[in-house]
Design goal:
This protein is an alpha/beta fold and 409 residues long. It has two domains: 287 residues, 3-Layer(aba) Sandwich (Aminopeptidase), CATH 3.40.630.10; 114 residues, 2-Layer Sandwich (Alpha-Beta Plaits). Strands 1, 2, 3, 4, 5, 6, 13, 14 and 15 form a nine-stranded mixed beta sheet that branches. A four-stranded antiparallel beta sheet has the order 9-11-7-12, covered by helices on one side. It has a two-stranded antiparallel ribbon with strand order 8-10. Strand 3, helix 3 and strand 4 form a beta-alpha-beta unit. Helix 1 crosses helix 11. The radius of gyration is 23 Å and the shape is globular. 48% of the residues are buried.
């Protein structure tokens, strides 16, 4: 009989202990291949050894805890231990800790399964230090591009040099890759980072897909002018056009009834002044959906309507699509197995897509993936107020254990 309360309390204690590892005393700062990453990885390795797992670490710092099975096949369970600047304690680390606690359940009993278990603690999901993310999970999936070694952080340190300073050999990155014959599936447990589970009063959700994403850079060219002397009907106000795009994105996304979300989080006004009509404005529109077809349909309509409003306002227009990341679907059979594990604990799983990116995006290039979401308070994430209750975390770890027990890989 699983002690759900004890599992949740242990998860909470471990998360808070890991959360104390930071580059700054009053906020969480833990980036890839830094001394704080090293300290966090060492703590994770300590916990894995205490759980009777065999521990190793690859050339990009991913810590791996292994419990052998009766075959070479392995179920990979993982998440990340890096954090956004001034982020929360639960985003990423809970998935690693849930994996350790689940593997410990079998290791403590000396119980082997038909497949082995590997718990993975990745270090580069948030992309805080370097301009591209998921390097560590891409290495495990065998899709790491060596050109990434030359990208630099804000201090001009290349990824190659950072790896060497971390005590690793970039030439060994290729050895981090799992064989497709070995990697049977990848599973990630993660806080939802959104409010849906709380709104529906459900502790757990089954993820259907990791949303695809499009970035549109929209730039309007109007005519700068004096704020007091140019009549309203004669203005070519680039910011007014941009404001209309913000509301257009909101309206069109709402019309999809939840299929698409669209956000404008950045607007640039060169040479802005309170008494000058903006002549040039650029904004970035982030568009996401669990369906590539819906996302592409939205993008096409959105572009068409932006062009129409630019013509109406007599504004020059440039639209550049800078990102087009396809949707990563979760495996249907694994989804159903995850749902059954939730039901076996007395819950009713809610199916939902993940609007945020995860290491599963990279791991899906290697093997089938599944994800379980855990309710978080207020849907708040990437924020010090981020919180998942011990009760919910215990329910999640118990569901993960049941999923492992019944997995057919």
């Amino acid at each position: 009989m699983l002690d759900v309360k004890a599992l949740g309390e242990r998860a909470d204690t471990m998360i808070r202990t890991l959360g104390s590892i930071s580059a700054e005393p009053n906020r969480l700062v833990r980036s890839f291949l830094t001394p704080e990453h090293r300290a966090a990885a060492d703590l994770i390795a300590k916990w894995m050894r205490a759980a009777k797992l065999d521990v190793s670490e690859d050339a990009l710092g991913t810590v791996r805890g292994h419990w052998p099975g009766y075959s070479e096949k392995r179920l990979l369970i993982g998440s990340h231990i890096d954090a956004v600047i001034e982020g929360g304690l639960f985003d990423g680390p809970f998935g690693v800790i849930a994996g350790i606690l689940a593997a410990e359940h079998f290791a403590a009993a000396g119980r082997k399964l038909a497949f082995g278990l590997d718990v993975l603690a990745f270090g580069d999901e948030e992309g805080v230090r370097f301009p591209k993310t998921l390097s560590s999970s891409m290495a495990c999936a065998g899709t790491f591009d060596s050109a990434r070694l030359e990208m630099t952080d804000r201090d001009g340190v290349t990824l190659r040099d950072a790896i060497v300073r971390y005590g690793k050999d970039p030439a060994q990155i290729v050895a981090a890759a799992y064989s497709r014959d070995v990697a049977a599936a990848y599973v990630e447990v993660h806080i939802e980072q959104g409010p849906v589970l709380e709104y529906k009063s459900q502790p757990l959700g089954v993820v259907t897909a990791i949303a695809g994403q499009s970035y549109l850079n929209v730039e309007f060219l109007g005519e700068a002018g004096h704020a007091g002397t140019v009549p309203m009907m004669l203005r070519r106000d680039a910011l007014a056009g941009a404001a209309e795009v913000v509301l257009l994105a909101e309206r069109l996304a709402r019309e999809t009834k939840g299929e698409v979300v669209a956000t404008v989080g950045l607007i640039r006004i060169p040479a802005a002044a309170a008494n000058v009509i903006p002549g040039n404005v650029a904004l970035i529109v982030d568009i996401r959906s669990g369906s590539d077809a819906e996302r592409h349909r939205f993008v096409d309509r959105f572009k068409s309507e932006i062009r129409a409003l630019a013509d109406r306002r007599e504004l020059g227009l440039t639209i550049t699509q800078t990102r087009d990341v396809p949707t990563t679907p979760c495996d249907p059979a694994l989804q159903e197995a995850m749902a059954e594990a939730v039901r076996a604990g007395g819950g009713e799983p809610l199916y939902l897509a993940s609007g945020a990116g995860h290491d599963g995006t990279a791991m899906a290039k290697l093997c089938p993936i599944a994800m379980m979401f855990v309710r978080c308070r207020g849907g708040i994430s990437h924020n010090p107020a981020e919180y998942a209750s011990p009760d919910d975390m215990g329910i999640a770890v118990a569901a993960l254990i049941r999923f492992i027990e019944n997995a057919k890989l």
